[in-house]
Structure to design on (471 residues):
């Protein structure tokens, strides 16, 4: 099995504060990793480093066997897609958000594809022209998630995307992520949710910036 | 032509009473601008007196290099002031200089080619001052809006970057908004010119006894000139300044 990520001695220090220390991690292609740990332990930082939104102070990261630094950032981030905990939506309508992935690829917006994506998270077709200010928190999170998945990436980095969602919405989001994982997308998910931790097939724990233990929960 | 445009020293001294009124209001209402008011008045008197003598000399000797030097000084000062309004945007001095120089010289060049003005100090220097100061204000507003946009919309920009957007795709809405903000005062004054204000050049010409119908021709030219110059200045400053908010890894600074 090939490895999609190989992290070697990753350290990140900001203002003399070590956020990540000596991280060594190998992520097999198609894996589903669950990352947990106390608040401030560096979970989001590690995801952001993987997404190239932060640069480590030292150490190397290989993505698909090639140094992360060798990729064009814009190309890399289309392959390694980071979903925020509390996403902000752009522009005025849901359409503006779902058109953005097309715009940055210089492709004409395909409304049929956008509608299919909306329906995959149990949102109606009419939602496409809904004002973003009229959306509930759960609807916003689902729109943000399909914005990341309209052009499926190789890796999905999820930063507590189910936090604060009601059980029904959480189930819809889990179903969407699972279906993409089954199609071969590697998933690395940060969570505090006890159920998600209990169901994790591969669980990693970060404490004070260090990967403390690895456990197979299932 | 009636010409009674001599302000006597006595009249000027009496005008100080108006400053005293402003000062009295400041003290009475505890507004706290007394110091700035006094500094402003003293600076205005000194700067205008010096520039009055300098302009008199430049107009009298009428040398090409001296006129060009005065244009350069005006542009340089405008750039320094615009940098002061950038609130820490890296390379704001160079960006301001490029934007103000390009906008001013292109506009000035066009006016000279069109024979709207002649290359004589009494025309080139005041027109340069008018263009450069308006571009300076436009750029200052543009910088302020860029800073506000990158601060308030930090999360949205991060998300665009995370989706694979390049710097321009991530920041374009903020850049457009900053350019709009920079141009807004000039467009607003173009809309209200003649209705609300009789602007500087037109007022000056009418004041000096020029036929108002001729004065408006000049004012129309000035309005067009300022629209062109502030658009150019804002666009150049906006597009050169926004990449400064990112580092070489396409991350927000």
């Amino acid at each position: 099995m090939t490895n999609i990520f190989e992290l070697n001695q990753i350290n990140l220090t900001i203002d003399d504060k070590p956020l990540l220390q000596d991280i060594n991690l190998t992520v097999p292609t198609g894996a589903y990793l669950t990352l947990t740990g106390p608040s401030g332990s560096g979970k989001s930082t590690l995801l952001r480093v993987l997404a190239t939104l932060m640069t480590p102070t030292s150490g190397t990261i290989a993505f698909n066997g090639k140094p992360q630094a060798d990729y064009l950032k814009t190309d890399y981030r289309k392959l390694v897609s980071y979903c925020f905990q509390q996403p902000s939506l752009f522009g005025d309508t849901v359409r503006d958000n779902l058109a953005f992935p097309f715009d940055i690829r210089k492709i004409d917006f395909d409304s049929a594809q956008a509608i299919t994506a909306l329906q995959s998270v149990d949102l109606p077709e009419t939602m496409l022209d809904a004002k973003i200010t009229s959306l509930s928190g759960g609807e916003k999170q689902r729109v943000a998630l399909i914005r990341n998945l309209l052009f499926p990436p190789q890796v999905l980095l999820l930063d507590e995307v189910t936090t604060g969602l009601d059980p029904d919405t959480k189930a819809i989001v889990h179903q969407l992520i699972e279906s993409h994982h089954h199609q071969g997308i590697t998933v690395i998910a940060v969570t505090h949710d006890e159920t998600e931790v209990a169901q994790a097939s591969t669980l990693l724990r970060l404490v004070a910036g260090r990967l403390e233990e690895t456990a197979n929960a299932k | 032509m009636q010409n009674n445009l001599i302000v006597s020293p006595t009249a000027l001294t009496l005008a100080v009473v108006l400053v005293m009124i402003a000062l009295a209001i400041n003290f009475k209402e505890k507004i706290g601008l007394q110091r700035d008011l006094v500094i402003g008045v003293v600076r205005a008197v000194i700067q205008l007196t010096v520039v009055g003598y300098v302009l008199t000399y430049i107009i009298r000797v009428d040398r090409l290099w001296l006129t060009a030097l005065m244009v350069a000084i005006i542009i340089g000062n405008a750039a320094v002031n615009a940098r002061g309004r950038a609130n820490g945007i890296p390379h704001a001095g160079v960006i301001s200089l490029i934007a103000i120089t390009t906008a001013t010289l292109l506009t000035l060049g066009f006016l000279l080619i069109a024979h709207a003005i002649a290359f004589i100090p009494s025309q080139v220097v005041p027109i340069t001052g008018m263009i450069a100061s308006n571009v300076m204000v436009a750029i200052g507003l543009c910088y302020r809006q860029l800073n506000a946009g990158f601060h308030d919309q930090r999360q949205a920009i991060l998300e665009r970057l995370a989706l694979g957007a390049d710097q321009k795709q991530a920041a374009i809405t903020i850049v457009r908004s900053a350019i709009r903000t920079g141009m807004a005062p000039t467009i607003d004054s173009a809309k209200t010119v003649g209705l609300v204000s009789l602007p500087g050049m037109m007022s000056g010409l009418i004041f000096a006894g020029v036929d108002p119908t001729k004065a408006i021709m000049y004012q129309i030219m000035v309005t067009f000139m300022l629209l062109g110059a502030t658009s150019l200045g804002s666009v150049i400053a906006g597009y050169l300044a926004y990449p400064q908010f990112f580092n070489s890894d396409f991350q927000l600074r």
The radius of gyration of chain A is 17 Å. Chain A has one domain: 3-196+206-215. Chain A is about 35% helix and 30% strand.
